[in-house]
Amino acid sequence: MNAVASVVRTVEATPWVMPTLDYTLLAPILIVLGAGVVSVLFEAFLPRSARRPAQLTLVFVSLVAALIAVINLQGSRATAGQGALAIDGPGLILQGTVVVIAILGALLMAERGLDPSGDAFAARASSLPGSEDERQFTARGYFQTEIWAFFLFAVGGMMLFPVANDLLMMFVALEVMSLPLYLLAGMARRRRLLSQEAALKYFVLGAFSSAFFLYGAALLYGFSGSISFPEIATALSSKTGETGLVLVAIGLVVAGLLFKIGAVPFHQWVPDVYQGAPTPVTGFMAAAVKVAAFGALLRLLYVALGGMRWDWTPMLWVIAALTMLVGAILALTQTDMKRMIAYSSIAQAGFILVGVIAASPAGLAGAIFYVIAYSFTTIGVFAIISMVRDNNNGEATHLSKWAGLGRTSPFIASLFAIFMLALAGIPLTSGFIGKFSVFTAAISAGETWLVIVAVVASLIAAFFYMRVVVLMFFSEPTEATATVEIPSVFTTIALAAGATVTVLLGIFPQPLLDLILNAGVFIR
Amino acid sequence: MNPSNYVILSALLFGIGTLGVLTRRNAIVVFMSVELMLNAANLAFVAFARMNGNLDGQVVAFFVMVVAAAEVVVGLAIIVQIFRSRRSASIDEPNLLKY
Q1: Number of H helices, E strands in chain A
Q2: Residues of B with CB below 8 A from A218's CB?
Q3: Main location per UniProt (chain B) (predicted)?
Q4: Segment A434-462 mean pLDDT
Q5: Which residue of A has its CA nearest to B20?
Q6: B37: domain range?
Q7: A9: pLDDT strictly greater than 70
Q8: With pLDDT > 70 as the criterion, what percentage of chain A qualifies?
Q9: Chain B partners of A276 at a C-beta cutoff of 8 Å?
Q10: Which candidate in A58, A187, A219, B51 could, as Cys together with A249 as Cys, close a disulfide (CB 3.0–4.6 Å)?
C-alpha cells in the first residue's frame, strides 16, 4: 500500500509541465517518418500507374531533405524529447551515414533494367509462389510499390537507433527498424520460397532477440530506477552489490543488440537472410543495419554501461574473437556468393567489435570509420551481385558461374576485385584504414592478444576474398559463366558511389577521420 | 504482497517463453512463446515501477503492448504466407537455406 501511495504522491506533487520536443533536433527523423506516412497515403489514393513516380520522388526528396537537415545540425550537442534522444557528434555522423546509404539502397531497389519481368520484388507478395495468380500478375506487369513505405519506416528506425538515449526509445527504434525489414526480406520476385523462408527465420529469431533485449532492459530499470542512459550510469556507479542481477541484465541487453550486428553466437540468421532476401534489400540491410546497430551498441556500452567496463570487456572479448574466426573460417567453405558475403559480414562485425572493446575515444572513432567504410563497400558488392545474371536472367550467385568473369567483363570484374581487396583490408582501400585505426586503438587500450587474433582472422579472410579475384581473372570462361547485364542509371550511380568512396577513403582518409575525431564522444 | 514476487513470476514466465521458442516446432506456438516473453518483460517493468516508486516502467509497458501488436501483424502475415505456400506451419520444414 505504501508504494502505491508514494507513487500517487510523487505524481501529484510534480506540476504538469508541457514536454519540450525540440523539433529542430528531431527534424531529420521526422522528415523520414513523415514521408513514410505520406507514402502509405500514396498507396491508398493514387492510381496504380502514378504510384511509382510519386513514391520515387517522395523517397529521394525526403532522404535528401533529411541529409540536409542532418548537415544543418552539425556541431549540435544536446538532448531532445526530454532526454530520450541525444543529438551529438557521433550520433549525427551515424545518422548522416544511414541517410546516404539509404539513398544508395533506394537506387538499387528502384532498378528495373536488370530483370526483364520487372524489378527485384514479387509482382504481388500475397500470391502463391508458382501459382496461376502469380503468373497473371507478372504478365500484367503489376508491381509492389508498398516496398517504399516499408523502406522509409525502416530508415526512420535506423536514424532513431544510434541517437536513442533511453532503453524505451532504443527498443522502439529497434522494432521500427526491424519490422519492415522482415517483410522486405520475404518479397523477392525470383526464388520466392527461399525468400519467404528467409523472412520467417529473420522474424522468429529477431523477435526472440528483441524479447531478450526487453527483459534485460526491465532488469536494468529495476536496478537503477530509471530508463535513461545517463541516470543508469549514475545508479551503476553509486549502487554496489546485486552485481549478479546487473550482469544478467547487461548480458541480455547486449545480446539483443549483438543479434542485429550478426555476432557469433547470434549469427545463424545472417547467411539465410542475406541469401534469401532480394539482393537490393540485402545490400541496403547489410550496410545500414550495421551502421545503426553499432551506433546503438556503442552508445549503450559507452554511456549507460561505461562504468561497468571491466565487466563487459571480457564478455565482448570472447564474442569478438569467436565472431572473427567463425565468420572467416565458415566463409572459406561457401559456394554461393551472397552466402559467402554474409559470412564475411560476420567476420567484419568481429573486426568492428575490436574497436568497440578498446572503449576509448580512438576506439569509438575507429569503429565509426570502419563501419562507414564497410557500408559503402557492401552497397557496391551487392550492386554488382544484382548485375551478374545467368541464362534465365536470374542472379548467378553460384561461385562457379563467376569463373572467367574478368575475361568477359573486365571492368565490372575489376570493380568487384577492388571491393574484395577493400574487405580484405589491402592498403590503398578504405578497408585498410578502417582495420588500421581499429587495431591501433585496441593495442593502445592494451588488447594486444585480441589484435593478434584479429590479424590471424584477417589472413584467413584475405584467402577467400582473393579466391574470388583469382576465380574471376585467372580461370577460363566456361559455358556456365554468367553475363553482366547493363543496368539503368539507378544501379550505376549506387555502384559508382560505392566504388568512389571505397577508393577515396583508402587514399585520402584524413578528412573523414578528422570529422569523426572532431565530433568528439557521446553526450552523457 | 511483496512486489518482488511478481519479478520472480515474470522470470518464470520469461523462462517458459524461452523454452517454448527453443523446443516447439509450430510457428504459431513459437510466436506465442515470444509474446509470452514480451509480456513477462511487461510484468517485470510494472513490478519494478512499483518497487522504484516512479511511473517509467508503466509507460514502457504501454509502448511494449503497441510494439507487440505491430509484431503480431508482421509475424502472422509471414507465417500465413508460408502456410499457404507449404501447407504447413512447422518452422523446421522450410529448409532450403542451409550451410
Answers
A1: 21, 4
A2: 10, 41, 44-45, 48, 57, 60
A3: membrane
A4: 95
A5: A208
A6: 4-86
A7: no
A8: 97
A9: 97
A10: A219
CB nearest to B78's CB, from A129, A203, A215? A203
Do A128 and B54 count as a contact with CB atoms less than 8 A apart?
no
Closest Cβ–Cβ partner in A128, A179, A211 for B38:
A211
* Residue A1: predicted pLDDT: 42
Q: Report chain B's terminal Cα–Cα distance, integer Å.
A: 52
Q: Is A405 helix (H, G, I), strand (E, B) or coil?
A: helix
Alpha-carbon distance B97 to nearest alpha carbon in chain A (angstroms):
6
> What are A29-57's pLDDT values in tens digits?
999 999 999 999 999 999 999 999 999 99
Share of chain B above pLDDT 90, in %: 78
* A chain contacts of residue B45, beta-carbon cutoff 8 Å: 218, 221
Three-class SS of residue A419?
A: helix
- Whether residue A204 and residue B50 make contact (CB cut-off 8 A), yes or no, is no
For chains A and B, CB pairs below 8 A equal 140
Q: Under a CB-based contact definition with an 8 Å cutoff, are residues A46 and A57 in contact? A: no
Query: What total of structural domains would you count in chain B?
Result: 1
Its domain, for residue A58, covers 21-518
Strands A388-389 and A483-484: antiparallel
Taking CB atoms and an 8 Å limit, are A226 and B63 in contact across chains? no
What would the grid cell of residue A289 be?
A: 543495419
Q: Which of A398-402, A439-443, B92-96 is the most confident on average?
A: A439-443
Q: What is the mean pLDDT of residues A121-143?
A: 88
In a domain, residue B45? The reply is yes
**Residues B96, A183: C-beta atoms closer than 8 Å:** no
The yes-or-no verdict on residue A13 having pLDDT over 70 is no
The answer to whether residue A337 sits within a structural domain is yes
- Count: domains in chain A: 1
Distance CA(A30)–CA(A8), nearest Å, equals: 34
pLDDT at A326 over 50: yes
Mean pLDDT (chain A) is: 92
∠ CA A8-A10-A11, nearest 5°, is 65
Domain membership of residue B80 (yes or no) is yes
Q: Which residue of B has its CA nearest to A5?
A: B53
| CA separation for the pair A225, A227 (Å, rounded) | 7
Which of B21, B64, B86 would best serve as a mutation to test chain A binding (most A beta carbons within 10 A)? B64
3-state secondary structure labels for all residues of A220-277: HHHHHCCCEHHHHHHHHHHCCCCHHHHHHHHHHHHHHHHHHHCCCCCCCHHHHHHHHC
Model confidence at B98, pLDDT cuts 50, 70, 90, reads low
DSSP conformational letter for A76: -
Question: How large is the greatest C-alpha to C-alpha distance in chain A, in angstroms?
Answer: 81
Q: Of the candidates A6, A200, A227, which has its C-beta nearest B60's C-beta? A: A227
In chain A, the residue whose alpha carbon lies closest to the alpha carbon of B98 is A272
